[in-house]
TrEMBL record:
Residues 82-180 form the TonB-dependent receptor plug domain. This is TonB-dependent siderophore receptor. NCBIfam families: TonB-siderophor (TIGR01783). Residues 1-40 form the signal peptide. Residues 285-687 form the TonB-dependent receptor-like beta-barrel domain. It comes from Pseudoduganella flava. It is a multi-pass membrane protein.
Length: 717
């Protein structure tokens, strides 16, 4: 018998020797690997008719080499194409991250439709979408409690095959949170065929980075597979006194316990050390209310400021095929986060003439966050009224504990020189002036169910629910954090195929979040509720290599806690509402042969109950455009990336108006393929050297990086 492996994506045929077994021998693995890396050569001559009839085995690669993905379950828990999903979903693929060197989550999300990255400090970041903070994060579809509201450190993207961003309330995947977006990190998984890659990067400010990734079978039968990913980065900065290093390692093993049972075990560790980390940032106006305008590299950090952030994640996943198209999955995760820092905050308003008026606030901060999560689900298909439908149901549980403590230093209130002349010199104090902190526990239990009904050939109905019980108990800097709430959040989606590749959709989803704040009578506020209604049209082209979408949305948060006053020494709150609405346009994938693109445009309106503009520090219009083109006559790929947003501002209580005018940031890339294994890439960021503030989320900010560049040598096997 003669076996031919046919690679569907590049039509490559590989003729195996006669009598080759169908089991995954090293030769079969190498042949499968060649499907992905070799150029098609001449077909082998056909055998004589008298020879034994050949058997054909088709090997379909699941790798996503472009800027879009064929399917996603990040919105409904059902594995649907992006066109079939009745909610706005953006996919950031590995190819896109590699092309534009998006090595951190911050850089990646900056390029995502409708998402703003609020870099309030060098190592703490908020994310927003549709006018509200993003507080839902997942790993392979399993949600994690988000106890901080912001992200510490600069999370690395080397671990992920792709990242899905579902905009709006996502109550099916996480019943608790804001109606903004859900970010789902899809980890890299082992491959049966041996594959390996490495990259060396050198860039501006002595940036040095190494990436390594190796994967393949660990036994001859291919029933045990492993993958190891590692990254190391070390860099100085344009900011005075700032430098950082980041170490990342991820290991995962898959084992076929039986033909129908798959066990996966993985662990991730990321450790970051930062010198000169900002705590707070630059004052943005003078005492006469005119704006400050410091040099781009100005920093308020001392020469002894230092932070260490450590993330550890371990997961165990068991998948079981039950027969008749049904599968079950259970995942247990253990996540820990630890930070240790010596920080220096600068407060006050400087005088325009002298630059004086700023004061010191040193502190030492330690925090430990531990999370345990369990998720179990069953997915399958069933017949009803002569049609086949899909169903998913399950439950999850999580427990998160946070213990942090602030040791305030001696010398609080010490006057500082003008920032223009200050070099970060301030004696490191004893951190024993006073102590405060937090200690609380968050528990969540949920059950969920979702069904996709095949109402007609062109019409599909998705309906589901999540019932969540959320409880918290403890103190945070003297304020009680005890809260409890139970709520069922519904989900409803409808899709209609106008054409075989064009689908109209509508969806409605809810989410909620318990609150611990109390009103003037001492009663705890009812939970915040979020709602999202969306209408849109989606299409896919060129055999799903290009996805396009247009969405109209209305998102509302009700009963958000806002401080209403102070009774004696205790603040009291009231619940207020806020609403956003807008339009999102997006296209991603292969626009023409060799031309990959990711483009999106968002128009947003946010109003308070009185109809006045709210959260004015968020841009109302954003445009992100990235494209790469592989030249047909040369082994050269060139690309461009542009990000534009309109002006933003915030009004301060003392009458100052802080503004950041509209700006565009331009990036360029080029990659030359030396041979099939080696390539050399150049990336240039902020080509025009635009000066702009990173955020107006707070009343302080700092300047984004000026023009910078990097060179990367890539190797693949």
């Amino acid at each position: 018998m003669r076996i031919i492996l046919i690679c569907v994506h590049n039509k490559r045929k590989i003729m195996l020797p006669p009598n080759t077994s169908l089991r995954l021998t090293p030769f079969a693995l190498a042949a499968t690997l060649l499907c992905g890396v070799a150029h098609a050569g001449p077909d082998a001559p056909e055998e004589a008719a008298a020879e034994t009839k050949m058997q054909t085995v088709v090997v379909e690669g699941a790798a996503e080499n472009g800027y879009t993905a064929p399917a996603s379950n990040s919105s409904t828990r059902l594995n649907l194409s992006l066109r079939e999903t009745p909610q706005a979903v953006s996919v950031v693929t590995r190819a896109f991250m590699d092309d534009f060197r998006l090595d951190s989550v911050n850089d990646m999300l900056t390029n995502t439709a409708g998402v703003t990255v609020e870099r309030i400090e060098t190592d703490r970041t908020y994310y927003t979408a549709r006018g509200f903070d993003i507080t839902n994060f997942q790993y392979d579809g399993i949600g994690i409690p988000f106890v901080y509201g912001n992200v510490y450190g600069n999370l690395d993207t080397s671990l992920y095959e792709r990242i899905d961003i579902v905009r709006g309330a996502n109550g099916l995947m996480s019943g608790v949170g804001n109606p903004s977006a859900t970010v789902n990190f899809i980890r890299k998984r082992p491959t049966q065929a041996l594959q390996a890659s490495a990259a060396l990067t050198y860039g501006t400010w002595s940036k040095k980075r190494f990436d390594g990734d190796v994967s393949g079978s660990l036994n001859e039968a291919g029933t045990i597979r492993g993958r190891l990913v590692a990254a190391y980065e070390d860099s100085d900065s344009y900011l005075d006194r700032y430098s950082n290093d980041r170490k990342v390692i991820y290991g995962v093993i898959e084992a076929d316990l039986t033909p129908d049972t798959l066990l996966t075990v993985g662990h991730t560790a990321q450790i970051g050390n930062v010198n000169g980390a900002l705590w707070g940032a630059l004052p943005l106006y003078y005492t006469d209310l005119t704006p400050t305008n410091y040099d781009v590299g100005t920093s308020t950090a001392t020469d002894w400021a230092h932070t260490r952030n450590e993330y550890q994640q371990t997961f165990v996943e068991l998948k079981q095929r039950l027969g008749a198209g049904w599968t079950a999955q259970a995942t247990l995760s253990r996540n820990t986060f630890k930070t240790r820092g010596k920080m220096f905050y600068v407060y006050g308003t400087p005088d325009r003439t002298t630059g004086l008026g700023l004061y010191a606030y040193p502190s030492r901060y330690d925090a430990d966050n531990k999370q345990t999560l369990f998720d179990a689900s069953v997915n399958g298909k069933f017949n009803l009224a002569g049609r086949e439908h899909e169903l998913s149901f399950g439950a999850n549980w999580s427990k998160s504990t946070l213990d942090d403590i602030s040791y305030y230093g001696q010398g609080i209130g010490t006057p500082l020189p003008a920032l223009e002349t200050w070099g970060g010199a301030f004696p490191e104090p004893a951190f024993d002036a006073s102590v405060d902190g937090s200690a609380y526990t968050d528990k969540r239990k949920s059950i969920f169910g979702v069904a996709r009904f095949n109402v007609a050939d062109q019409l599909k109905l998705i309906t589901g629910f999540t019932t969540t019980k959320a409880d918290s108990d403890g103190l945070s800097y003297g304020v009680a954090k005890s809260r409890s709430a139970t709520k069922t959040t519904p989900y409803l989606g409808l899709t209609y195929d106008i054409l075989p590749n064009v689908t109209a959709y509508g969806s409605y989803s809810e989410i909620f979040s318990p609150q611990s704040e109390t009103d003037i009578a001492g009663n705890t506020l009812a939970p915040m509720e979020g709602k999202n209604a969306e209408l849109g049209i989606k299409s896919d082209w060129f055999n799903r290599r290009l996805n396009t979408s247009a969405a109209l949305f209305r998102t509302k948060q009700t009963n958000i806690a806002e401080q209403a006053g102070i009774a004696g020494t205790k603040a009291y709150y009231r619940g207020i509402d806020a609403e956003s609405k807008g339009v999102e346009l997006e296209a991603s994938g292969e626009l023409a042969k060799g031309l990959q693109t990711s483009a999106n445009f968002t128009v947003l309106s946010i109003e308070d109950p009185a109809g006045a503009a709210a959260r004015t520090y968020l841009p109302r219009r954003t445009l992100r455009l990235s494209a790469t083109y592989r030249l047909p006559t040369l082994p050269l790929t060139v690309g461009v990336g542009a990000k534009w947003q309109d002006d933003i501002h915030r009004n301060e209580a003392d009458g100052a108006a802080i503004r950041q005018s509209a700006y565009t940031v331009l990036g360029l890339m080029a990659r030359y393929d030396i041979n099939r294994q080696l390539s050399l890439a150049v990336n240039v960021n902020n080509v025009t050297d635009k000066k702009y503030l990173t955020s107006l989320y707070w009343s302080q900010s700092y300047y984004a990086a000026p023009r910078n560049a990097s060179v990367t040598l890539n190797w693949k096997y």
